[in-house]
Amino acid sequence: QVQLVESGGGLVQAGGSLRLSCAVSGRTFSSVAMGWFRQAPGKEREFVATRSWSGDNTYYADSVKGRFGISRDNAKNTVYLQMNSLKPEDTAVYYCAADRLALRTGRTGLADFGSWGRGTQVTVSS
């Protein structure tokens, strides 16, 4: 059974930073791309960032480019999302997800990811 557990969310003022972590167990972490998605109240879940299984390629939503950074530590089976210059519109539940198939890269659709964490709340106050 694959398990993804997010942590690191919280309340922060606009302009602040947070670092989310996602610990993965139960599958070969190093062979799958990992992603972060978010869902704000009343909105659909949306893509935020993904990093390839090799770690060589990253992709970001336009809304977070230049502010967020996704990284992974394959030795620790953990993926991170560093969020800087946070804005109130970044307020959402953030979800970690693992690509449905191994050795792919560049996928950003919800359907491309087959394993999900339960999410961690990020609230940015103005």
Question: Which structural traits does this protein have?
Answer:
single chain; mainly beta; 7-stranded mixed beta sheet; 4-stranded antiparallel beta sheet; globular
Describe what you observe in this structure:
This protein has 126 residues and is mostly beta strands. The chain has no helices and eleven strands. The strands form two sheets. Strands 2, 4, 5, 6, 9, 10 and 11 form a seven-stranded mixed sheet that branches. A four-stranded antiparallel sheet has the order 1-3-8-7, with no helix packed on it. The chain is globular. The mean pLDDT is 95.
Please identify the structural class as seen in this structure. mainly beta
Order of helices and strands: EEEEEEEEEEE
Largest sheet: 7 strands, mixed
Rg of Cα set: 13 Å
Count the beta strands.
11
Strand content: over 45%
- Whole-Å distance between the termini? 40 Å
Catalogue the unreliable spans: none
Percent helix range: under 10%
Helix count from the secondary structure assignment:
0
Mean pLDDT, rounded to whole units?
A: 95
Q: Globular, elongated, flat, extended or rod-shaped: what is the shape?
A: globular
